[in-house]
Inverse folding.
């Protein structure tokens, strides 16, 4: 078991203190992940993409309006 504070860092992580994900505790290596404090998978869990509005549209049968 490595000593506390002496964990291995990924090659693309800048030197300095190790930043961990606020949700799962894994070490963060990407710049965006380090800035937000969430890893990509945890960020996707908390902020899912919005549904595509076009997929929710459907045709509705309706009578013609009077006078048209």
């Amino acid at each position: 078991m490595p000593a506390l504070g002496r964990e291995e860092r990924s090659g693309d992580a800048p030197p300095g203190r190790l930043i961990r994900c606020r949700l799962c505790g894994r070490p963060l290596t990407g710049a965006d992940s380090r800035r937000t404090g969430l890893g990509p998978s945890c960020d996707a869990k908390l902020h899912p993409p919005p549904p595509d509005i076009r997929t929710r549209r459907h045709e509705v049968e309706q009578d013609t309006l009077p006078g048209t």
